[in-house]
Amino acid sequence: MKYKPGKHIIAEFKTTDNKLLLKSHSFKVLIDSLVSSLDLSKVGEVYHDFEGGGYTAVVCLTESHLSVHTWPEFEMITFDVFLSNYLKENDDKVEQIFNSVHDYFNPIEVKRTTLNR
Amino acid sequence: MKYKPGKHIIAEFKTTDNKLLLKSHSFKVLIDSLVSSLDLSKVGEVYHDFEGGGYTAVVCLTESHLSVHTWPEFEMITFDVFLSNYLKENDDKVEQIFNSVHDYFNPIEVKRTTLNR
Hints:
2 copies of one chain form a homodimer.
Chain A: E1 6-15, H1 25-37, E2 42-49, E3 55-61, E4 64-71, E5 76-84, H2 91-105, E6 107-116
Antiparallel strand pairs in A: 1-5, 1-6, 2-3, 3-4, 4-5
């Protein structure tokens, strides 16, 4: 493929800080803060909290998207973020978002895949 | 990580059928049909059509998510679909969705990454 859209990080976190996995509110605050400070453009989002705890969310950006899904019963989170470099170079921002989300969940185990798509 | 949530396919397509990349409407019809026929649960979605053509979309499922972003100027699509196996085994459905979206865009070039997360 000639055109290379951008960097996509796909990660699994295991944490012992299980209360962070129950409700999406604080995660949304973090993401809104990142979107604002990194000058990204959100065009929509879905945050869905499951009864009994756990949440699933996607945030749609003009630059692409990010998603999170939590499994409190397994103390596990899946997260991914993909930003295209169409109008400006965003690879550093992908790393910044990954690092902030990583630190938020305070994981004891991390599995990370990086795709330069 | 002890818990293995499920399969995630991440793909880039190059097509010469550029009109499919301009507006999201027909793609949404396809996805709604797949969500229904595969008995998945949509909890929200964002479809954003850019002025001048091209679209970006995310669909949030209780089973996880899918996303698409199109670049008509490069005749290129990025697509990914991730379904967890939490309540039932969904690996086959990930393949079915991938195959349907692949056929929809009628690509002349495909790059596919499969993660068993």
